[in-house]
Structures are given as structure tokens and as C-alpha cells.
Amino acid sequence: MKTRLMTVVLAFLIVAESFALATEESEKEILYWVAPMDPNYRRDEPGKSPMGMDLIPVYAGADEEGNDVRISPAVVQNLGVRTAAAEQGTLSRLVDTVGYIDYDESKVSHLHMRVSGWIENLSVKSEGERVSKNQRLFNLYSPDLVNAQEEFLRALNSGNQGLIQASRERLNALGISRGDITRLENRRKVRQTV
């Protein structure tokens, strides 16, 4: 008899609680429905958002501009949101990460030869070795450069201005500076390496 009485009382309490929750929900006035992931997507009736999620109701009296963060209980349950009280403490400074070290590209100069040939004397022997401006890196022997210098000297000896100008332009195109061309013109001696 006691067991039946306890069962009836327990059932009554459960039904009363459910009825109270349902009454409380029905008393709130629904203003509109919004998408859970985009509060700008509003509708006048329940439905699905563009992402396929159920729209959630916004009730009258809800503070839209407040600083409170409010998440509906259904969303909290679905997402598994967990909360904790804020507390003061020290943050760890240990950070493990992956990184790459490379040269500063703005300070790297590339040297490209305009002629074929071979290096006879190498001054800088290893990659990454520091060099300074105007430091000789190597001596280059190029049969093309030797031939171009000889042609320029023959043109100078002939006195033909058109041929001299063409030879001068060829040397310049092969990467010989105007100063080096002037020195060649004054010395009249072919340099075997540059």
C-alpha cells in the first residue's frame, strides 16, 4: 500500500512539473525565429535555416543589445557546451610550434653569368659565407669574352666607327661594364679572366 501511494505521489509531482514548464513556455511571446549560426536570418515562423538547422525562437523581453551571452538550452545540449567560473591565475608561457628559418630575400643577391666558361679561382668556398660589396667571388675564364675583347681591339685598330660601336655593344651585352670597356680601350690588352 505504501509503495502504491509513493508511486502515485511521485507521478503527480512529475506531471505537475511538466505542466508548469509547459505553461511557462507558452506564456512567453515569440517575436520571430532566427538561424542558430546567423542571427541576421529571421523568419516569422519555425523552419530550417539555409544551413539545414532548426530555427530557434526569440522571445519578447529578451535583451538583444545586452552584454550577456545567452544560448538556448537545446543548443547547449547539442553542442556539449561546458562552463566554468572565471578565476585569476598564471598562464603558461610554453609554446611548442614548428617554424622554418630562411634567408632574408631582400638581402640576397643572385649572380648570373651571361657567358659560358669556367671558374678558375674561387674566393668564396662555402654556402652561407659572408661577402661584402665589390668583393671578388671568383675568376671566370670565358672563350666568348676573350673573343669579344679581341674583336673590339681589332675594330679599334681598323678605325671603323660602326665596327667599334658594334663591338662595344657586344661587350656590354656580355656583362662587361663601361668602365672595363674603357680600360680595355686604353690598355689594348685582352684580359683572360674576369
What is the CA-CA span between the terminal residues? Answer: 115 Å
- Overall mean pLDDT score? 83
Helix content: 25-40%
**Using DSSP, what is the number of strands?**
5
Total count of helical runs of at least 4 residues: 5
Report the major sheet: 3 strands, antiparallel
Question: What shape does the CA trace take?
Answer: rod-shaped
Domains (count): 2
Radius of gyration: 43 Å
Q: What's the multimeric state?
A: single chain
The H/E string reads: HEEEHEEHHH
As residue ranges, the low-confidence spans are none
User: Structural class, from secondary structure content?
Assistant: alpha+beta
Task: Please state how the strands of the largest beta sheet are arranged side by side.
Answer: 2-1-3
Give an overview of the whole structure.
With 194 residues, this protein is α+β, with helices and mostly antiparallel strands. It has 2 domains: 2-79, no CATH class; 103-194, no CATH class. It is built from 5 helices and 5 strands, in the order H-E-E-E-H-E-E-H-H-H. The chain has helices at 2-27, 73-79, 143-158, 161-173, 178-187, and strands at residues 30-34, 42-43, 56-59, 118-122, 138-141. The protein has a 3-stranded antiparallel sheet with strand order 2-1-3, with no helix packed on it. It has a two-stranded antiparallel sheet with strand order 4-5. The radius of gyration is 43 Å and the shape is rod-shaped. The mean pLDDT is 83.
Sum this structure up briefly.
This protein has 194 residues and is an alpha+beta fold. The protein has helices at residues 2-27, 73-79, 143-158, 161-173, 178-187, and strands at 30-34, 42-43, 56-59, 118-122, 138-141. 37% of the residues lie in helices and 10% in strands.
